[in-house]
Here is the input.
Amino acid sequence: MTILALTDKLMQQVKHEISQRFGITDLGEANQIVGLHITRKPNGDIKLSQESYLSKIIQKMGLDNANPVHTPMDINVRLQKHDAEDPVDLQLRHEYQVAIGMLMWAAIATRPDIAFAVQHLSQFSQHPAHEHFTAVKRVFRYLKGTIDVGLNYSGTAFDREKIFRVFSDADWGNSPDDRRSISGYVCIASGGPVTWSSKKQPTVALSSMEAEYMALCHATREIIWLRSLVNELGLLANQPTDLITDNQSAIKFADNPVFHARSKHINIRHHFVRERIISNEIQIYHCVSADNKADILTKPLARPTHDAKMESLGMAPNLRGSVGRT
Here is the structure.
């Protein structure tokens, strides 16, 4: 059992009341929860990582001695789906799906840096080829070199007025198979990511503005949930949440309630973001693309850009071992 409380006094009271009803053993401060390792630093900062889990899955893949790489995906490799009529290698499919399943837990728990790769590679799970499996192994090789990377949070970075900020991004027409775009967002609180997402959009966007606007809607839904959560925790979110994107046209479209002829085809559900602006729950700001932390969730990045995004998320990698190609 894990207990969270605003004060030590309240926590001791809760533990005392539980001990009156059940036999319990107090193990002190939590150092591991559902496989997530918690490291407390002398200055009060906290780090969440999965070194033990990552070591196990790398070993299970037989990649203990593989050379690490600097990025989870090769920007020079363009993967596509194979013809559905081609024969399926059942053994390869089984191994591929097992590998994707192992990566998925890391991608949603402590490693937003592999979220796009896992999302992208999972699309080939039903009919994988050897080039797809090679791409999956590359993600494991990347994890091998960055196994100690985790999420870092600092109490000094906590802002009670602006508890979290959300960065949103989209990569227009990313998929060569169906030309749908990728939405990505990352919510930053206390200096580190708390939630993130990399997801293919449900419909084809006709412009980069439309893709970015749908990504804003995707991020806005997460913001509404997070605001509800912090309110339940007693951290009232009175101020609108900052939603940051690098597309000026999407910001103007979100702020302007007038439906123009060239935008009336956009699904009504995506205009949910406008209501939240009017209700003062979100406030949209612009940033240059180089400062958009969500960029890492929408496409493969070259090493310099990847490292810069990791540093901006407080997850700067320290690659171990000999290095393969970048």
The chain has a mean pLDDT of 88. Residues 49-150 form one domain.
